[in-house]
Design brief:
The protein is 37% helix and 15% strand. By secondary structure, the protein is an alpha/beta fold. It has one domain: Rossmann fold. The protein has a six-stranded parallel sheet with strand order 3-2-1-4-5-6, sandwiched between helices. It is globular and about 55 Å long.
């Protein structure tokens, strides 16, 4: 009997990545291992619907920084799908377009990486139910109790989707890094290399990004 081909597993990691940092890489590596992903795609947003007008680096600059961050990660890659589309980036649109953009089968499994801090607002995302029905959510818990955060969604999402969120839990040791904190720290030049690799810092200095003087 001929073996049934395994459904391809594609990780989708969307965000502003302004700038990308080792916390993002830490999450990507954990998701690749925990869910046996075939590839994990970073998708920088043109404009987040939750952070309008807050982007500080251009799309091309953020892609260049991501390339440096992922230089030694063969299963990680970048899609400029949302940047090419322009305007506000909605996850459901990206999920629908991603398989064709990557040359993957239309029925591939898409593992959507979500921070647990996104859960409270998740029912308000565009076509939230359709999104959660299509993807396998990977909920990255950094602090707090995930069970209580999911329970708080009762009545706002169907029970089967709440259970789906629970199954996708990914507990990670805390990494004290956020793009917001890094932007605040960068102009001071005292930056922990455990947060931002030297190659990224060199690029930021060479291009005078985030208030850092040109090198």
């Amino acid at each position: 009997m001929e073996a049934v081909p395994r459904i391809r597993r594609i990780g989708l990691f969307g965000g502003s990545f302004d700038p990308p940092h080792l916390g993002h890489l830490h999450v990507a590596r954990a998701a690749l291992g925990r869910f046996a992903l075939d590839r994990l795609v970073f998708v920088p947003a043109a404009e987040s619907p939750f952070k309008p007008g807050r982007r500080l680096a251009s799309g091309a600059e953020r892609v260049a920084l991501l390339r440096l961050l992922l230089a030694d990660e063969p299963r990680c890659e970048i899609s400029e799908l949302e940047l090419a589309r322009g305007g506000r980036s909605y996850t459901i649109d990206t999920v629908r377009a991603l398989p064709a953009a990557l040359g993957e089968p239309a029925d591939c499994a898409i593992y959507l990486l979500l921070g647990s801090d996104n859960l409270a607002g998740l029912p308000g995302w565009r076509e939230a139910r359709a999104l959660l029905e299509r993807v396998e959510p990977v909920v990255v818990r950094r602090e707090g109790t995930l069970a209580s955060e999911i329970s708080a969604l009762a009545g706002r999402l169907p029970e089967e989707l709440l259970r789906k969120l629970e199954r996708g839990a990914l507990d990670l040791p805390p990494v004290r890094a956020s793009s917001t904190e890094l932007r605040e720290m960068l102009p001071g030049a005292d930056l922990d290399a455990r947060l931002l690799p030297p190659t990224l810092l060199e690029y930021i200095r060479a291009h005078g990004l985030y208030g850092v003087p040109h090198a």
